[in-house]
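re the bet — no i am not wrong, look at it urself. input seq straight from the record:
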Amino acid sequence: MELRDYWTIARKRGWIIILVAVVAAIAALGVSLVIPKTYEATIQLSVNPGRADWGLSQATKELLRNFALNLKSHRMTQMAIDEAQLDMTTDQFLANLDVSDDSSNLSITLVAESHSQEEARLMAQTLADLFVREREAWNQDQDKSDRIEVSKVDDVRYVPLARPNKKINTLAGAIFGAIAGGIIVFFLEWLESDTLRTASDVEKATGSTVLGAIPTGGQAKAGGSRFHLPSWIDSGVLLFFLVGLVIGAALGALIVALL
C-alpha cells in the first residue's frame, strides 16, 4: 500500500480509533472514581547480629526467611488484631499483608493494605512492634554475643494511596483503547481487501483507464436505511459506533482491574 492509501484509511476509519481510545479512557477514569480507595502502609525491620562475625552474619541471613514466615502466621496476626482491636479475621489480615526479606541489607519489609489509612497503619505498625518485642524477649535468654537484634528502621509516618491511580488508569485506557481501535480498523480493511472502492483501484486491477463512473445513491439513500434510521446515518457506521462504545468501556474497566 502507498502512503496515500494509509492516509485514506486514516481519514475514513480514524474516528474508530479515537472513539475507542476516548471511551476506554473515560471508562477507566469512571471506574477509578467509583471503586474504593486502597491505602498502603510500609514499615521496615532491621536485623543485626550481635557481633561482627561471618558465621553469625550468615546465620542471620538464613533466619530472615524464618522471620518473614513467622510474621505471616495466624498466631502473630491474631496478636496484632487483639492489640490494635481491629475488626477483621487473620485470613483477612494475611490477605492484605505482604512480607519480604532482603539478605543484601538484612532487612524485612512489611506492607499492609486497607481501605482505611488508619487501619493500614495499625496493621503494619502493631505487627512490627509485636515482632520486635518477641525477639527482644528471645534475646534475653541468649548470650549478648550470640543475639540477633531486630529493630524498626522507622515508625509508619505516612500512608499513601496505593490504588486507584486515576492518571495512570486514564492514560493506560486511552493507549490500549487506541490499540484496540487500530485492530478494529485493520480487521475492517482486511474484510474489504478484495473490494474495489476507487477508480484507481479499478485501474490497478484491470490495467485499463477508467473513463466514467455510475453515481452512487438511489432510493435506499433517499428513503433512509432498512433499519428506519435517518438518511444521514449509515447502519454500518452505527454498528461500529456501538461496538466501539462496548469495547472501549470494557477495556477501560479491565485496565483498572489489572492496575
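see?? The radius of gyration is 32 Å. told u. also Confidence is low (pLDDT under 50) at residues 218-233. so pay up
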